[in-house]
Amino acid sequence: MAAPMLRGCCLARRGALACIDGGSRHGRGAAIGCRSSGKRGRSSVAQQPLITAQKSGKGEHAWAAVVGLEIHAQISSNSKLFSGSQVQFAAPPNSLVSFFDASLPGTLPVLNRRCVEAAVMTGLALKCHINKKSLFDRKHYFYADLPAGYQITQQRLPIAVNGSLEYSVCVGKKRSQVITRTARIKQIQLEQDSGKSLHDELRSQTLIDLNRAGVGLLEVVLEPDMSCGEEAATAVRELQLILQALGTSQANMAEGQLRVDANISVHHPGEPLGVRTEVKNLNSARFLARAIDSEIERQINELENGREILNETRSFDCKLGCTIPMRDKEGKQDYRFMPEPNLPPLLLYDTASLPPGADPQQVINIDRIREQLPELPSETREQLVQQYGMLPEHSFTILNEVGLLEFFQNVIKETRAEPKKVTSWILNNFLGFLKQQNLAVNESPVTPSALAELLNLLDRKAISSSAAKQVFEELWRSKGKTPSQIVSEKQLELMQDGEALNQVCLAVMEEHPQVLLRKRQCR
Amino acid sequence: MLGRTLREVSAALKQGQITPTELCQKCLSLIKKTKFLNAYITVSEEVALKQAEESEKRYKKGHSLGDLDGIPIAVKDNFSTSGIETTCASNMLKGYVPPYNATVVQKLLDQGAVLMGKTNLDEFAMGSGSTDGVFGPVKNPWSYSKQYREKTKHKAHGENEDSNWLITGGSSGGSAAAVATFTCFAALGSDTGGSTRNPAAHCGVVGFKPSYGLVSRHGLIPLVNSMDVPGILTRCVDDAAIVLGMLAGHDPKDSTTVQDPVKPFTLPSLTDVSKLCIGIPKEYLTPELSSEVQSLWSKAANLFESEGAKVIEVSLPHTSYSIVCYHVLCTSEVASNMARFDGLEYGHRCDIDVSTEAMYAATRREGFNDVVRGRILSGNFFLLKENYENYFIKAQKVRRLIANDFVNVFNSGVDVLLTPTTLREAVPYQEFIKEDNRTRSAQDDIFTQAVNMAGLPAVSVPVALSNQGLPVGLQFIGRAFHDQQLLTVAKWFEKQVQFPVTQLQELMDDCSSVFEIEKLASVNFC
């Protein structure tokens, strides 16, 4: 049985490689999994697999779900988007607040160059058109953690537009067929993060922490090209890997550096799109797919029961496992957009358009940033396939687990074992153990060197493969021991001495004359 | 000594004729005597005396910081001053003490200037009278001048004299009055639609609005970010140029300031105006313009012509749309800028705490006056999605047309435009408040507003006294970033007209000795 862990739903949801079940129902009962024809390939148009509602007869009322995403990624920078305050997670409340962040009257925004470079680099990596002129706007709403009463964003003319995000799903009975899908990127815009409101229900107070207020965000808007939770989660994971590879965002969802809002609607194929809802603050990789699928399910149920879908903002309640309307954002919001008068248009250059004698500190050259683009996850995976003969789906798994690629590379460096063997061991045994004990790669008791040594023993045929598994289990339990130590302690070496082996065999035969006799009689 | 110009008193300080502390004390005592004018909201006496003392030390060591060292200045109360209350004449900011200095304030202090205090204004600079602040209206010192009293004696007789006092114009009325009453040698105002030039004209001082982007707005509590400019009020054009030299230039804290370095400069004394081309915009000849101002305007044009300058009539065809366009753009930005005043981080907060929303609403109702609330309301209306195209976008387009009018005129060879600053001289408070703030602002900014839309430099220079004995100012408008050229022309004009000094002896009876009024030039110009 091959790598059972790779198939699990939970892994698929977290991974940039979603395993999508074509036929059987799974998950929460209703058929809200994505069905794939397997021929859509790289099509960038909205993918609308058919979904059969639970209650209706087979194929009678086919529903298609349409999912678009707005992803906010905190830019990895030393200081905020428009002020010099430091950016740091979990600092004491209100310790990283400049006069501008607290919106003291008379303060003005000053654009952080690093954030612009991060936006350009992300735009390039996502195959966007970089606008050489972009504009900033004010988006108004009253909220206690928005001190100025408006957020500076890029509504009219964002820094990057018309890109695409490729992610892969695997289909087929054995889920061994990898299909690349594309979600179009409408735009990437620079904007400010808000502060945090901490509600003290007991004393009916709200406390405000402005540390996050003004931190630079990249808002990546994905067109409604996805059709289920798993696709969305896979796309988000791929984006996360790209941002991490670029270093433009740490994109750690647990620390709120990557936050997702989903626009969801359902309709009958061939008919106009349905009324959409927005599910806000999908801030956990675990719940992303579930939240989207439960909202799709809810909408189908509503419509099947003759009710209407309201254009509203909802949030996912992970305890209830379903989405609920957000009370405080009810009603139509008019953000009263207005150009930000304190920031001139953001002008970018390429080598051709660079004004002669321009101060390199004052201008940003898109071509220079393009030169600095690091290897992207897709390229890394390609490399793994090429160099080590890895199966494409395995290359996804290697990249999806935080730290696993590095672990893999370190093992490869120190072992003579075949890369395929290394891959198999890492994916089946190593990852299996990690999952069983819910550990991250960097928490593993087995170091790359230890695994490399073990694989060397195996490669040398010093131990059998079943002994190797035993050693591996022992390594997991007894930290600090080397594989060789375990092998000799447990006397797990394969015997290489023919004479000694002969002696052993003779001794066994002598000890079991009856067995020997029976064997002879049979013959 | 107090009657001197900044340049003169600076020379006196350098020569040791007077010490910074003496000068500061004289100004402080005059501030007390003129307290009833309500020019200052906060008098920073202690800070001023300390700064004067430090300046004195520098002079004693021979390490003076320059022309501004030891010079008393005043700052409009919408510029942030570190450690000194900054109110914008609003309940919303009563008691608000900024933790930082506006860049322009810092630059003046770095030059050794002595800050006498923060001057009165219309709440959040929204007004043209300096009558709509929470600390009460500013009274025009000319109400108490010998010149005005003599002319209006017959009228004032038998009535309560004080009920006839005149407004200063606004919104920088406190700064204009402070300079006019010799309590400081220069003052900062702000100018969004004429707020520096208008009170300058009514108070008989020079009011200069620099090109947008030449002087940092960092720390200026905004009215309309895209039009606001720190303004300079002085008693002569040369002084305005000195202060501009100290303030102009790029500020890393204000991204809308020019990148090119600006060098301090002294204005040349123009002797020959024959190469100048002066444009007279025909649209500025409106029916509302008082005949007296109109006649002074044409006399000024004649003066240039008689001295050899080319004076031509020009057209700024979109002028008439300026007021309504300004209304939309101003209120929209106001609605946005005022959103931050929610009672959370600073400023006034109401006692209501049933919910955050209720707290916002009550805080803002209590904190802002009707004028501010009215502008917020209309601004938010214009910014609504359904109205945005029809109002805001349209107004932006009209703004472009207005700006282009100026570009076209300057491209046709005109160096400087000459216009009135105001429709008439200052009016009595009782008359002024007959109209509401909005109507007043719309009328009073008519000659000044378009300049802010186009970001051009403009200066109001006092030209003569009206028949009532009140100052009248004329405005020069220059090309963008040709501030120096503009001031050079203004300086030449100022020299020709020899505007008289206010005679406030009666008002200040016992302290008349502080005015060593050297020049009592002829009141009759031309």
Core attributes:
heterodimer; A: about 525 residues; alpha+beta; eleven-stranded mixed β-sheet; three-stranded antiparallel β-sheet; 14 helices; B: alpha/beta; 18 helices; globular; disordered C terminus
| Cα Rg of chain A | 28 Å
Class computed from helices, strands and strand pairing of chain B: alpha/beta
Rg over CA atoms of chain B: 22 Å
| Average of pLDDT of chain B | 92
Oligomer: heterodimer
Major sheet attributes of chain A: 11 strands, mixed
How far apart are the termini of chain A?
A: 36 Å
Report the mean per-residue pLDDT of chain A as an integer.
86
Most extensive chain contact? A-B, 30 and 44 residues
* Terminal residue distance of chain B: 29 Å
Given the helix and strand composition of chain A, which structural class is it? alpha+beta
**How many DSSP H or I helices of chain A?**
14
Q: How many beta strands in the DSSP annotation of chain B?
A: 11
**What percent of the residues of chain B sit in helical stretches (DSSP H or I)?**
25-40%
Shape of chain A: elongated
Low-pLDDT ranges of chain A: 1-15, 18-33, 35-48, 52-58
Function (chain B): Allows the formation of correctly charged Gln-tRNA(Gln) through the transamidation of misacylated Glu-tRNA(Gln) in the mitochondria. The reaction takes place in the presence of glutamine and ATP through an activated gamma-phospho-Glu-tRNA(Gln).
GO biological process, one term (chain B): glutaminyl-tRNAGln biosynthesis via transamidation
EC number (chain B): 6.3.5.7
Catalytic activity (chain B): L-glutamyl-tRNA(Gln) + L-glutamine + ATP + H2O = L-glutaminyl-tRNA(Gln) + L-glutamate + ADP + phosphate + H(+)
Commentary on this structure:
- The complex is a heterodimer of chains A (523) and B (526).
- Chain A has 523 residues and is an alpha+beta fold.
- Chain A contains 14 helices and 18 strands.
- Chain A has helices at residues 9-14, 113-125, 229-246, 285-304, 366-371, 377-388, 392-400, 404-414, 419-436, 448-459, 465-477, 483-490, 498-511, 513-522; strands at 17-19, 51-52, 62-74, 129-130, 133-134, 137-140, 150-153, 160-171, 177-192, 196-200, 205-209, 216-226, 258-267, 277-282, 313-317, 322-325, 338-339, 346-347.
- In chain A, a hairpin with a 4-residue loop joins strand 15 (313-317) and strand 16.
- In chain A, helix 10 (448-459) runs antiparallel to helix 11 (465-477).
- Mean pLDDT of chain A is 86; it is low at 1-15, 18-33, 35-48 and 52-58.
- Chain B is an alpha/beta fold and 526 residues long.
- Helices cover 39% and strands 12% of the residues of chain B.
- Chain B contains 18 helices and 11 strands.
- Chain B has helices at 6-14, 20-33, 45-61, 103-110, 146-156, 173-180, 197-203, 237-247, 291-306, 322-337, 356-367, 370-383, 385-411, 429-432, 437-444, 449-454, 483-497, 505-508, and strands at 40-43, 72-76, 114-119, 186-191, 206-209, 229-234, 277-281, 310-314, 416-420, 458-465, 471-478.
- In chain B, strand 2 (72-76), helix 4 and strand 3 (114-119) form a beta-alpha-beta unit.
- Chain B is globular, with a radius of gyration of 22 Å.
- Chain B starts with 5 loop residues before the first helix and ends in an 18-residue tail after the last helix.
- At the A-B interface, loops of A face helix 10, helix 11 and helix 13 of B.
